[in-house]
Design goal:
- There is one protein chain.
- This protein is mainly alpha-helical.
- It contains six helices and two strands.
- A two-stranded antiparallel ribbon has the order 1-2.
- Strand 1 and strand 2 form a beta hairpin.
C-alpha cells in the first residue's frame, strides 16, 4: 500500500469517526431532555440535581458542573429548593457559604431517574450485546485518553502563544 493510499484510508477513517461522534453527541444531548420530560424537570435542573447527588455541595461547584454562571446556578438551586428537592444549610466553617444536599424527595427523584436511565441502557445492552458494548467501551476509553492528551497539548500551545 502506498503512502497516498494510507493517507486516504486515514482520512476516510477520521471522517467516519467524526460523523459517528456527531450522531452520538446529538443523541447524548437529547437524553437529558427526554429524561427531563419523563420526570417533568428542566434539563438544567436535572443537571444541577445530578451534580449535588455526585457530591458537589456548593453553588459554584454546581455552576462548574453544569456550565452555568454562578448566578444562573444560584437561581436553579433556588428553584430546586422551592420544589423541595434540595436543601441549603449554612456551612459551619464559612459564614458566607452554604452546603447543598438532596432532600428525601430529591433523593427519591434521583433514584427514579437512575432506574429509568439504567433501564434505558439495559435495553441497548440487550439489543447490541455485552461483548460488542465492551469492545465499544474499550475503544472509546482509548480514544478518550488520546483525545484528552491532544486537547491538553493544544491548550498548552494556546497558553504559550
Amino acid at each position: 500500500m502506498t503512502a497516498r493510499q494510507d493517507d486516504r484510508e486515514a482520512d476516510q477513517a477520521v471522517r467516519r469517526l467524526s460523523d459517528t461522534m456527531a450522531v452520538v453527541s446529538a443523541t447524548v444531548q437529547r437524553l437529558p431532555v427526554v429524561i427531563g420530560e419523563r420526570f417533568d424537570l428542566h434539563p438544567t435542573r436535572l443537571a444541577a440535581l445530578r451534580s449535588v447527588a455526585a457530591g458537589r455541595t456548593r453553588v459554584s461547584d454546581v455552576a462548574d458542573a453544569t456550565f452555568l454562571s454562578v448566578s444562573a446556578a444560584s437561581r436553579t438551586v433556588d428553584a430546586l429548593v422551592e420544589e423541595g428537592l434540595l436543601d441549603r444549610t449554612p456551612d459551619p466553617d464559612n459564614r458566607r457559604a452554604v452546603t447543598l444536599t438532596l432532600t428525601p424527595k430529591g433523593e427519591g427523584l434521583m433514584e427514579e431517574v437512575r432506574d429509568f436511565f439504567e433501564g434505558f441502557v439495559r435495553g441497548i445492552v440487550t439489543e447490541v450485546g455485552v461483548a460488542r458494548l465492551d469492545e465499544v467501551s474499550s475503544a472509546l476509553a482509548t480514544f478518550g485518553e488520546h483525545m484528552g492528551a491532544q486537547l491538553a497539548a493544544y491548550e498548552e500551545n494556546l497558553d504559550a502563544g
